[in-house]
Amino acid sequence: MKPIRIFTVLLSSAMLLTAVPAVTARADEPSQTSASGDVPVEPQVDYSKITLEKTSFTFLASNSYLGYDSVNGSTVLKGVPDGVSLDDIDLDYSNTGKKISVYDVYIENNKLCFEASGTGTTTVNVTIGTKKLSFKLTIMGLSLSKRSYMLVKGKSTTVKLKLSGSKSKKGIKITYKSLSPKIASVSKTGKVKAKKTGTAVIKVTAKYGKTTCRYGTAVNVTTPLRYAVYKWDRNYSNKNRYSQKNRMKKGYYDCSSLVWRAYRSRGIRMLYKKYAPTAAGLAEYLVKKHKKVASASYKNFQARKFQVGDLLFETGANNRRYKGIYHVEMFAGYTFDSFNSKGKPVLGLNFANKATGGDDNAYYGVSQKNFLCRP
Predict the structure, then answer these.
(1) d(Cα 161, Cα 203) in Å, to the nearest integer?
(2) CA-CA distance, 195 to 282, in Å (whole number)?
(3) Is residue 292 located within the same domain as residue 161?
(4) Fewer CB within 10 Å: C terminus or N terminus of the chain?
(5) Domain that holds residue 282
């Protein structure tokens, strides 16, 4: 009986071995099953038949405070056998030129996907298996030439868009809208007219294909007198030097003597006739004259309560002066920063004194403890 049992085992083993065909495994391709459903069969991919469904892409990149955002695209890989996935296959890629950075190319659901940033035109070369593919990529970028404008009531200007990455705006639909039309209106071509003292945000929308980009600029409308005061402050601080010791001498200034002189140039005297008070003395005088507007809180700034020519006083120093005030700046209007998640504009601020502040100061001096006065 023992020999019979041995023969049976050998026979069963032989039958099992002859039932399994040889399989050539390929690590870069998934397996399929035979018609019977129980024997793995590895599909063969003829890379020479793989092509791109789309070989040219054009995008309009969104523009943020930090620059142009990246773009994402994809195209179907044609010629891939049914049931085969190339998602895990290794590939090589490169692109021409330096204006566009292509930093992620991969396959997902048998689509060639990519991410890139910059503006201009480049050719992206991709190698999948033994097949070399390429596609053309153009990224356009739009930006406003200025994030803030200052206009005297009744004057006008035109909001200008700068295009990069292409020579033509063909296919881009651009619309303009004033968020405060009673302060400043805007035409279909971007011409802005100043109507009333205050600040209006001009919203510019650009659409290209499925992409929508939004831009903004702040239009600060002021009076001829306040505009002249601002210009005097800006010009004098540009040409002369800061010095507390020589603050009243020709060619010099400090924070309080600068704003005091600027208003005096238009016949407005604050406290003294021939000598500028300190920032604390100036603030105390204006508060007593009921010239205080409001605190310099973030909420008040975003509510656009302040106007060109207002004076911002910083408090809190241990100097035994009025409210511990140690510094003053002339407010020179708002600058556009961004739109928040609810689509509302977020604004920064400009100062007249370019040497110690100037344009686009973000939120310097914005604090509940500080305040502004309007001489």
Answers:
(1) 12
(2) 31
(3) no
(4) N
(5) 224-373
Specify the amino acid at residue 271. L
Report the domain count for the chain: 3
Q: Supply the CATH number for residue 347's domain.
A: 3.90.1720
Query: Which tokens is 99 given?
Result: 């204006």
For the entire predicted model, the pTM comes to 0.81
Q: Give dist(CA 122, CA 165) in Å, integer.
A: 10
The helix/strand/coil state of 239 is helix
Query: Do 119 and 199 sit in the same domain of this protein?
Result: no
- Rg of the chain (C-alpha set): 34
Q: Mark which of 106, 141, 176 sits at the end of a domain.
A: 141
Q: What CATH code is carried by the domain that includes residue 86?
A: 2.60.40.1080
Separation between Cα atoms, residue 201 and residue 360, nearest integer Å: 15
**In angstroms, how far is CA 58 from the centroid of its own chain?**
20
- How confident is the prediction along the chain (375 residues), in pLDDT tens digits per residue? 444 443 333 333 333 333 333 333 343 444 445 455 555 555 678 999 999 999 999 999 987 655 678 999 999 999 999 989 999 888 999 999 889 999 899 999 999 999 999 999 999 999 999 999 999 999 999 999 999 999 999 999 999 999 999 999 999 999 999 999 999 999 999 999 999 999 999 999 999 998 999 999 999 999 999 999 999 999 999 999 999 999 999 999 999 999 999 999 999 999 999 999 999 999 999 999 999 999 999 999 999 999 999 999 999 999 999 999 999 999 999 999 999 999 999 999 999 997 766 676 667 899 999 999 999
Whether residues 201 and 231 share a domain: the answer is no
How far is Cα 38 from Cα 337, in angstroms, rounded to an integer? 63
Of 141, 174, 207, the residue that ends a domain is 141
